[in-house]
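Our preliminary data section would be incomplete without showing what the modeling component actually yields. Below, a chain of 245 amino acids is followed by its predicted structure, encoded as tokens that our downstream tools consume directly.
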Amino acid sequence: MPQKTSFDVRLGKWTRREFRQAMESCQLKGCILPLAAVEQHLEHMAMEHDWRSVNVIAEQVAEALRPGVVVAQGIMAGISEHHMKHPGTLSLSPGTFLSVVDDLVDSLVRAGFENILVLNGHGGNVIPCQQTWDQFLRRHPVNLHFMSYWDVLNQEDALDLLEGGHRLPEDLPGHAQEFETSMALRWFSENVRSQAMQDQKDRSPLLGTREKGEAFTRRIVERLTDYMHGMLAGSRKQTIPPFHP
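Predicted structure:
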């Protein structure tokens, strides 16, 4: 393993020697690639929310699986055309976004990773990725998975932890409402403007609490850790879809 004073799960913090030694040791077996967005999150939350939240989850999963997993620098901006009426939103066209995802996955494959989890934190990225994932699997014949970090949550979690509504996906994850506000209050409360929550028409963010954010995070990290452990152990393998010309 690399001669580091501490193990940092963020790949960008490593030197090339440290990474090379980690791969040669065969202990580093998987990588998480976060996807997100920079867009409006109502009046009360900072526009970087999706990026911060997906990285919080990714880094905790990697910590649970250390030294076998690292988190690569993913894509901060996503497909957010539907939010462009709110100035400050940054959006990529679907073609550009998918091309960059493909290039980053290719880079990780060429680096030697055989288990890659592309972990999404923005709803607008989901359908474009799902619709093209067969092509990704054919281009990159490794154990390549795509999911949003909230995909491991279910109706029971919504009923157990949410007060304002229990619909999936309208309330869980929703958008800048009880769930996302709770996550922000737990992990980056400086991004939440409490006065704005009082002023805006949507009242559901007021139901968000730090405690709910902690409870959701605990469930998400535990289940995603189990999911990726299966990837590393070989019990959760992605199959290459057949090609029908």
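The radius of gyration is 18 Å. Residues 210-233 form the longest helix (24 residues). Preliminary results of this kind motivate Aim 1 of the renewal.
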